[in-house]
Amino acid sequence: LRVSLPCSHAKEILHCLKEKYFKELQNLEVDGQKVEMPQSLSWYPEELAWHTNLSRKILRKSPQLEKFHQFLVSETECGNISRQEAVSMIPPLLLNVNPHHKILDMCAAPGSKTAQLIEMLHADMNVSFPKGFVIANDVDNKRCYLLVHQAKRLNSPCIMVVNHDASSIPNLQIDVDGRKEVLFYDRILCDVPCSGDGTMRKNIDVWKKWTTQNSLQLHGLQLRIATRGVEQLAEGGRMVYSTCSLNPIENEAVIASLLEKSQGALELADVSSELPGLKRMPGITKWKVMLKDGQWFEEWKDVPSNRQTQIRPTMFPVKDEEKLKAMNLERCLRILPHHQNTGGFFVAVLIKKSPMPWNKRQPKVHQKLPQRTGDTEVTAANSDNNSECITEEPTLAENEESKTMQELQNSDTEQSKKEGVCGPPPSKKMKLFGFKEDPFVFLPEDDPLFLPIQKFYALDPSFPKMNLLTRTQEGKKRQLYMVSKELRNVLLNNSEKMKVINTGIKVWSRNSDGEQFGCAFRLAQEGIYTLYPFLHARIISVCIEDVKILLTQENPFLSKFSSETQKKVKDMAMGSIVLKYDPDPEKPDDLQCPIVLCGWQGKTSLRAFVPKNERLHYLRMMGVEVFKAKRKEEESESKTEEEVQHRLAQTEEGMDVEDKEHDLVTKMEAEIGEESSHSPVESSAMEVENKIEDLDQSSKNANSHVSQESKDADTSNVKD
Q1: Residue 603 belongs to what domain range?
Q2: How would you write 625-671 as a 3-class SS string?
């Protein structure tokens, strides 16, 4: 498990783990066996990664470990902890990411490495919008939603999830001082599909299904993906190629072939001094190729002609000793399972010194910008079939057949660009890649929707309102999302060729009750840390006792709060507010990191709109005991209360059913063997004071605010 670094409470979480949960595991016996103490990974910076030998079954089922398990599930859901294979943490660390880097993750699902990259972008918690961004891609449409779920826990405006074949991911363009330029990435993570033979300690299927044929079939795809990656890498940029396999045909053979055809444009970086403490083996320079029937081949010339479709020349080691020496294949990293109790893993770090030899000329896209819809449509349709993005003219038959259609689309495209609408790519591609996504519509500069928000929250003049977007073109806008300036640039210039699954962080939700108080939009907790630096009104400073009341009671009366808080609230109009706790250095026993909560001020009460797991997190950090053991005899009695809490949580989160991937994610986590982050976590700290009747009414009110598109999503079971 890994503690998320940009989390403002990272030190507190680490302290809580070491001093509370790990200490409770000391001298503990489960089923007659002594529980081993978790160990920190010596090579991971700042003691932020830990390893435990506890099996998933024991962790889930053992009553003695229930408290620790609930902590892990709850903090994972909040994005403060990630559970991840230890060796899988290595590639992002070797990328050496800085907050200004443009990053591409080519085969990103299920998203644990992507989460690491996002954390590195937000290394400075005081910067709301880092200049860099992460574009996370996966070819599998369903797994993209799992990727969205992982990324959303981190609440970043700098992540975009896209759905493409990595071996032919299109060249994107960005606007640089009014000029269109091809986007090259500073860092690329190329964690390719592989046979997975390095996972045989945990993956039983490998023993049943493994054959030498697996790697022979994957080699070509791996080489194409890696080639496409280095084409899109900026000069001086770094690409990490990795697999969870130890087969040289999937590893050194791919790297050697890439280096050979790069003609000196690429070099393997020497990372022997990085990650001290990590036990590693050097890359190998000699290997043989074997067929399924057990035949071995040392050279390409030995392969019979009837086998030359299965075995390719790029699978063999380089024979020229000088060339081989210049490649420095020993700079690759091989992580062997028995060296430090991990999975098997291969990593190679490549640096691009000059353009690839076949890319010396500027790409055609750079010269011929897709202004005519005919061109852009064909570019989009062909970008997934060619490793180089080449603009082709449509055939005569196609022209005659779809002339009217193109004219219609042409006018639509021009209009969309004017309105800041980033629609999905052509419908033909949609059938290939699954579900149709809602468009991304940026708010126009003169949108009347924004003025009441600006006035109500006294937004700073520096607030980047051009970066606000919605997911609906028509009707009432229900949610407002925000992206960084750089991602806005990418979105606006590439909507025809790129299938975007998700981007942006929710900052405001419509609440019709707020209209009578001057603003129809309330603040959303997931975007509050991004938004807070720009707010100059509706902020109430609260003490730690007030925070405890807000988090443990559902709708507390104002009389329960400190006199200072009551005074501040008295002079403030009803509606959405920010509740800010600043630590007092003179009280070292109190929580020493700031907390920002979204809330609602009523006539006689004050409440916090914070998701359940986040509430539990803050309470833990303040030393409040939130654990409640589950007892079978209590299950039926507590069922009603759980339903109430569930409906309450929906109300608190503004009934944001616009995010359609939730159910799919839960199923998929089970499919890939990940532990579901939706395990029930009960809390004795949660006191629901409202009567069920009141809650029913508030649920009805909240339901009336659900957008039409959300209702459509609910009635359609296609995505679920």
Answers
A1: 538-627
A2: CCECCCCHHHHHHHHHHHHHHHHHHHHHCCCCCCCCCHHHHHHHHHH
The pLDDT, as a whole number, for residue 435 is: 64
Among 189, 186, 119, 184, smallest CA distance to 154 is for 119
72 and 181 in a single domain? The answer is no
The answer to whether 593 is annotated as binding is no
- Is 138 annotated among the ligand-binding residues? yes
Q: Are residues 194 and 342 in the same domain?
A: yes
User: Which pLDDT belongs to residue 396?
Assistant: 33
Same domain, 340 and 207: yes
Q: What angle do CA 107, 109, 110 make, to 5 degrees?
A: 150
Indicate the length of the chain as a whole number.
Answer: 720
Residues 347 and 316 both lie in one domain: yes
- Between CA 116 and CA 119, with CA 118 as vertex, the angle to 5 degrees is 65
| 165 assigned binding-site residue | yes
DSSP letter string, 283-322:
PPS---EE-TTS-EESSGGGS-GGGTTTS-GGGSPP--HH
Residues of the chain scoring pLDDT < 70 = 6-8, 361-435, 514, 628-720
Yes or no: say if 528 and 596 are a contact pair by the CB < 8 Å rule: yes
pLDDT at 357: 93
Residue 322, token pair as written in the block: 């000088």
If asked whether residues 69 and 172 sit together in one domain, one would say no
Q: Domain check: are 546 and 604 in the same one? A: yes
Q: State the alpha helices, DSSP H only, in 238-299.
A: 252-262
Q: Are 83 and 675 in contact (CB under 8 A)?
A: yes
CA distance 441 to 466: 11
Enumerate the active-site residues. 244
Element spanning 268, H or E: strand 266-268
pLDDT score at 623 = 83
Tell me, what's the pLDDT at 570?
A: 87
Please indicate, yes or no, whether residues 259 and 349 belong to a single structural domain of this protein: yes
CB 146 within 8 A of CB 109: yes
Examine residue 136 and state whether it is found in any structural domain, yes or no. Answer: no
Instruction: Report the amino acid identity of residue 332.
Output: C
Q: Is residue 550 part of a domain?
A: yes
Reported as half-sphere exposure (CB side, CA atoms, 13 A), residue 285 has a value of: 14
Query: Is residue 412 marked as binding?
Result: no
Tokens of 684: 């004795």
Q: Is residue 73 domain-shared with residue 190, that is, in the same domain?
A: no
Q: Is 113 annotated as a binding residue?
A: yes
Q: Is residue 330 part of a domain?
A: yes
Q: What was the pLDDT predicted at 629?
A: 59
pTM of the shown model: 0.80
Total domains in the chain come to 3
